[in-house]
């Protein structure tokens, strides 16, 4: 009995210490780790957040492996990455020349050559066979990877009863099941080396839902559940060298949810996030091995309140904020666009 009480006391102390560390993280910015020379796979790299992740990792001299279903947009991202690499190489040459000019005096060695590359692959992450075959190509062409950014996502834009079953399945495959396939493809080597970092780009709608996007919310809830369970499995296996970061942003202005509106009086205080700001925040979390990032920080509070308040109280808050029907304008726009497209094509 005494041993259990002693162990429980140790647990309490560890919990309190965890709170202290979390507080320090908020007060003192942790040092960012280097990803120079590391291999980073990014799914959905052809546009939106995926493209911005690619450029941010390129600036940090990582080797990029870009996956997207759209070859053209993926190559556009790759060209942006190559442009950044060229700028970094020119900077290296300038620094090398400056160092060489004083090398005879100060013994400064020549700056090492810049070697990162970018690889592009067309991959439909919603199809298991496509993920596994593309992962095999990556291992053959590039080698082992260090970072996996599960970023690819989609939204159907239909009310539940109007959404074709195939589109619901597709949403689940891309937003949730794909995380299983990519992780199963790359995790074994990470486990062997006890090294790696897996990033799950989910959504605040994976923490708390709203009306009209049942398939999207379910897929993001699933992705978060997968991420959390995998995090616990790695801890249980004592694979502390493999880091996990869960990303839950509020509405990001990438066009995916164009038309989504909360109450107009509230919107100036809670506008859609600029993609560049969102990615900067997420990059800081990744590079400091932060387990979870919600942006803006009010998402943490909303998630906590949803967990402790009665459901009717949550509904009351939703209605006040205009969050209960915030997706309806977006859904109406999508429906109108589809009707116009059908009329144009004579369907």
UniProtKB/TrEMBL annotation:
PROSITE patterns: ADH_SHORT. This is NADP-retinol dehydrogenase. GO terms for molecular function: all-trans-retinol dehydrogenase (NADP+) activity. InterPro entries: NAD(P)-bd_dom_sf (IPR036291), Sc_DH/Rdtase_CS (IPR020904), SDR_fam (IPR002347). It is a single-pass membrane protein. CDD domains: 17beta-HSDXI-like_SDR_c. Pfam families: adh_short. Pathway: Cofactor metabolism; retinol metabolism. The chain crosses the membrane at residues 6-28. One of its GO terms (cellular component) is endoplasmic reticulum membrane. The keyword Electron transport does not apply. Keywords: Endoplasmic reticulum, Membrane, Microsome, NADP, Oxidoreductase, Signal-anchor, Transmembrane, Transmembrane helix. Belongs to the short-chain dehydrogenases/reductases (SDR) family. It catalyses: all-trans-retinol + NADP(+) = all-trans-retinal + NADPH + H(+). It is found in: Endoplasmic reticulum membrane; Microsome membrane. Its EC number is 1.1.1.300. It comes from Scleropages formosus.
């Amino acid at each position: 009995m005494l041993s259990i009480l002693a162990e429980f006391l140790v647990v309490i102390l560890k919990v309190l210490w965890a709170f202290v560390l979390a507080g320090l993280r908020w007060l003192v910015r942790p040092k960012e780790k280097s990803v120079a020379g590391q291999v980073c796979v990014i799914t959905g790299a052809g546009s939106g957040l995926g493209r911005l992740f690619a450029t941010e990792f390129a600036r940090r001299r990582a080797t990029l492996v870009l996956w997207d279903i759209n070859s053209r947009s993926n190559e556009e991202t790759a060209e942006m990455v190559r442009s950044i690499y060229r700028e970094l190489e020119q900077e290296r040459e300038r620094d090398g020349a400056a160092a060489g000019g004083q090398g005879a005096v100060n013994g400064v060695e020549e700056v090492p050559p810049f070697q990162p590359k970018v690889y592009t692959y067309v991959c439909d992450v919603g199809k298991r066979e496509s993920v596994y075959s593309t992962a095999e190509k990556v291992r053959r062409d590039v080698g082992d990877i260090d970072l996996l950014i599960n970023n690819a996502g989609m939204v159907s834009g239909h009310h539940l009863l109007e959404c074709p079953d195939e589109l619901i399945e597709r949403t689940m495959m891309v937003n949730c099941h794909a995380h299983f396939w990519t992780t199963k493809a790359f995790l074994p080597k990470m486990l062997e080396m006890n090294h790696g970092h897996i990033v799950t780009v989910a959504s605040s709608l994976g923490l708390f839902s709203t009306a009209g996007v049942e398939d999207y919310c379910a897929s993001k809830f699933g992705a978060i559940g997968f991420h959390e369970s995998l995090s616990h499995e790695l801890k249980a296996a004592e694979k502390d060298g493999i880091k996990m970061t869960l990303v839950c942003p509020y509405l990001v202005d990438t066009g995916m949810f164009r038309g989504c509106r909360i109450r107009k009086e509230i919107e100036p205080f809670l506008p859609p996030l600029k993609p560049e700001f969102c990615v900067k925040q997420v990059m800081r979390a990744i590079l400091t091995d932060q387990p979870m990032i919600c942006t803006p920080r009010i998402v943490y509070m909303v998630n906590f309140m949803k967990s402790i308040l009665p459901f009717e109280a949550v509904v009351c808050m939703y209605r006040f904020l205009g969050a209960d029907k915030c997706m309806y304008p977006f859904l109406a726009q999508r429906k109108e666009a589809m009707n116009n497209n059908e009329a144009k094509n004579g369907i």
